[in-house]
Amino acid sequence: MKSLIPAFLILLAGCVGDHSQEYDVLTGYDSFGEAITPEDAVPVSAVIADGPAMIGHPVKLEGRISEVCEMAGCWLSMQVIDGPMVRVDVPRDENGAYVFTFPKDASGRRAVISGVLQGDVDHHGDAAMAHHDSDAGEHHAEGDSDAGEHHDGGDHDSAGHHAEGDSDGHDQDLQGHSEQETRVLNESAYTLTARGALIERVRA
């Protein structure tokens, strides 16, 4: 009977250690999208090595964030040292809104992200590029409307000049964002459509 007591204490100590570790992980991370846990996560390097077998299947990745979309927080990238990137996209709901967004200042933090892995993506048809196209379309529509209103008032030249100036400034803003996004797309070996994420919290 006495020999069972030390064994029980060792088992109890092991359980306490596991719970404290889980507590530390969960309290050090913010949750986005569907609730997930860090269990069963694989490093990003595993996707680079075994990606073809994972395409179309749910996976849970763990790694460090390289970049985040500067405009909307609708995508981020995770990179293997001396290797390609894995791009992570946020899906949209039936109304076209992002179901969640990533913190724009999350670069350099560790993350656990769950989703479905995809291979090569048509960059022009990629859903995550839609905010670029949508914003551009809204701006042009607004510019056309403004020009039309001024035209009705007999001030076509002034309105045209004003719309052109606004368009130039807006195009410059989009150009910087497009360059960042295009570069990440071109350097990404795979794309993960995220369902949920745990992102390391900024320490005070």
Write the layout of secondary structure elements.
Layout lengths: L3 H24 L1 E5 L8 E2 H11 L3 E11 L6 E5 L5 E5 L20 E9 L11 H23 L3 H32 E13 L4
Parallel strand pairs: 2-3, 5-7
Antiparallel strand pairs: 1-7, 3-4, 3-6, 4-5, 6-7
Helix pairs in contact: 3-4
Structure description:
The protein starts with a helix and ends with a strand. The protein has 4 helices and 7 strands; from the N terminus they run H-E-E-H-E-E-E-E-H-H-E. With 204 residues, it is α+β, with helices and mostly antiparallel strands. The protein has a 5-stranded mixed β-barrel with strand order 3-4-5-7-6. It has a single domain, classed as Bacterial OB-fold (OB fold (Dihydrolipoamide Acetyltransferase, E2P)). It has helices at residues 4-27, 44-54, 130-152, 156-187, and strands spanning 29-33, 42-43, 58-68, 75-79, 85-89, 110-118, 188-200. The chain is globular, with a radius of gyration of 23 Å. Helix 3 packs antiparallel against helix 4 (156-187).
Q: In a few lines, what is going on in this structure?
A:
This protein is α+β, with helices and mostly antiparallel strands. It has helices spanning 4-27, 44-54, 130-152, 156-187, and strands spanning 29-33, 42-43, 58-68, 75-79, 85-89, 110-118, 188-200. The protein has a single domain, classed as OB fold (Dihydrolipoamide Acetyltransferase, E2P) (Beta Barrel).
